[in-house]
Design brief:
CATH architecture: 4-Layer Sandwich
Radius of gyration: 17 Å
Order of helices and strands: EEEEEEEEEEHEHEHEEE
Largest sheet: 9 strands, mixed
Shape: globular
Low-confidence stretches: 1-19, 23-35
CATH superfamily: Ribonuclease Z/Hydroxyacylglutathione hydrolase-like
Helix content: 10-25%
Mean pLDDT: 86
Number of domains: 1
Structural class: mainly beta
CATH topology: Metallo-beta-lactamase, Chain A
Number of helices: 3
Number of strands: 15
Strand content: 25-35%
């Protein structure tokens, strides 16, 4: 059940929901938005597994791939979920959460969201996922895009495949990507790198890495083209002004 206390528009065509982020180039480097002298700041905290807390300048709070395990007190205003495993969703979220967005298809139409909560906009792009028996769950996952303070943040959820040109056009310009780098349960690390190169983000936040050794392999693979920034604090603050000049992987500590 989807509970929405924010402004929610259910769009008929999910690819149209992402038009606000400027289209990303299909090939070649991205063109970055210009920064203002005093840009507002978005606060991002890695809670663990695939869950990040996103806090906007106007204090809207969202948690990605919410399962109830990684949460906050008080609870967030909005949560997104994906259907790959119970560690990425719950059918019994905290009843105090005002907006719950299921990233998988329920019924005859793919999930299609355009939610505005104060200075936060959340849209989605459905993707398919593998089933345990070897089949495919159509639209079992969503890439959720969070827009605030002039930043476009994409959480790829349990993405299992490379993106097509139509997906990239729908997603548009992305500044920050949150991507699973376990290399086993989602996509291989080489394919994860390809997805990153398709999207041209300025910041990559690895998640779903199940330990330091797996994360280290991913970081080593990325060192030739990305700056590597390993943090000991799970929280970063980002604005348009503070986006790094060189594309950077920022590794935050978090749970498994």
């Amino acid at each position: 059940m989807i509970r929405v206390l924010a402004t929610l528009l259910i769009l008929l065509a999910p690819r149209l929901a992402l038009a606000a982020c400027a289209p990303v180039a299909s090939v070649g480097p991205a063109i970055w938005h210009a920064a203002a002298a005093e840009d507002p700041t978005v606060r991002i905290t890695f809670l663990g597994h695939a869950s990040f807390l996103i806090e906007t300048p106007d204090h809207a709070r969202a948690i990605t791939d919410y399962s109830g395990v990684y949460t906050t007190e008080p609870p967030p205003d909005l949560v997104t979920m994906n259907h790959a495993h119970p560690t990425h969703y719950t059918l019994h979220p905290d009843p105090r959460i005002g907006t719950v967005l299921h990233g998988w298809q329920e019924g005859s139409k793919p999930p299609a969201y355009d939610v505005v909560l104060r200075d936060l906009r959340v849209t989605n792009l459905p993707t398919n996922i593998r089933e345990w028996g070897g089949g495919t769950e159509i639209n079992g996952n969503s890439i959720f895009v969070f827009e605030s303070a002039g930043l476009c943040i994409a959480h790829l959820g349990h993405l299992h495949h490379l993106l097509e040109l139509a997906d990239l056009d729908a997603l548009g310009h992305i500044d920050i990507v949150m991507i699973a780098v376990d290399g086993a349960f989602t996509i291989g690390q080489d394919d994860a790198r390809t997805v990153i190169e398709q999207m041209h983000p300025r910041i990559v936040l690895p998640m779903h890495y199940f330990g330091a050794a797996t994360l280290a392999r991913f970081l080593d693979m990325m060192r030739d083209t990305y700056a590597i920034d390993v943090r000991h604090d799970p929280t970063i603050e980002v604005s348009r002004m503070t986006l790094p000049d060189q594309p950077t992987v920022i590794a935050l500590p978090g749970g498994p």
